Known about the structure:
Elements: H1 2-5, H2 11-31, H3 35-55, H4 62-83, E1 87-89, E2 95-97, E3 102-104, E4 107-109, H5 111-129, H6 139-153, H7 158-174, H8 179-200, H9 208-220, H10 228-240, H11 262-270, H12 272-294, H13 299-323, H14 341-365
Antiparallel strand pairs: 1-2, 3-4
Helix pairs in contact: 2-3, 2-12, 3-14, 4-5, 4-6, 5-6, 5-7, 5-13, 5-14, 6-7, 6-8, 7-8, 7-13, 10-11, 11-12, 12-13, 13-14
Amino acid sequence: MVFFSNLKGDKIIWIIVFILFAISFLLVFSCAISIKSLVMHSIHLFLGFIIIKITSKIPYKYFTNFSFILFVTSLLLLLWAILTPSFVYDDFNNPIDASRWITIFGFTFQPSELAKFSLILLLSRNLSLNKKYTFKSSIVPIFIPILIVIFLTVKSNASTALIIFFISSIILFISNLSLKILLKFWIVGFASFLILLFLILPLSNNNRIETWKSRISSFFNSEQSENYQNEIARKFISSAGWFGVGAGKGSDFLPAADSDFIYTFSILEYGMIMGVFILLLYLVFYLRIILIARKINSNFPYLVVLGLGTLIIVQAFINMGVNLGLLPTTGQTLPLLSRGGSSIWIVCLSVGIILNISSSIYEKEF
């Protein structure tokens, strides 16, 4: 308890983060196919903890103006990823399409993760600066940034583009924008997405459209086997029972067991009890987000807490929905559990800001 007393912010959120980190390390340790992947994941978790600790001590007000710099940086990184398509190699030396990633100082980084984060900060800032937006006056500060990010991400990662549109809609809905403006945004946003989907993407020379079609059709047609990841995941979950096969005894036949399907792997080794426990951790996390937001009187931190918290929980639910066979494969990782550098660090950055805002509330009240 002395250790937690030295940490700023909501202690329950801190406890949840440490539990998820511990579970993540155990699962990756169990399914890691090389020492290198385990060591890198350990480094990612350690750096994630440092990011949370440092960010929780930085006053959230600094992110008001810094949000624009982060947003512009994320756009440049997205353009970098688009203009420099490349391949990375997995632990078996197999090439993987790396159009979503760029390499910085030896680390692979996914610019869309930073784009989601910075867009939430920018929208929260702009919405808090003006409480009397009209549709015309909100086009440049609100709608253009959303459409730009969607435009730059939809080609390589349509699921991320949809998440961005959904989270942006949530932020606009809980802000002071009128329902009339919000409806216009939905119409314009949906029309823009259709234009991108049916006019621009078919002109490209990649197979992303065929991948989407394959995932969706295989999800609704059980006779198709192209989406074998979902089929294997469902078989493992149905055979795991309440207590699983035991730690370290998970199957090697589960694809992406340490990333996209780590939730399935946790159930396979530790049973449905672990699956329910992980779900409860995310639910308690979001409950704390709601409790924190209810105590905030200022518009910017209110939108930031709910925006970042909703982003984390939506991504978690999408990942678990895919693992349980409720959704087609999207490639979304499970926050703070899946192996990966950029996804862990951006989530940790979000958690750190939430903790700083919560500590500001508690210091004022107590």
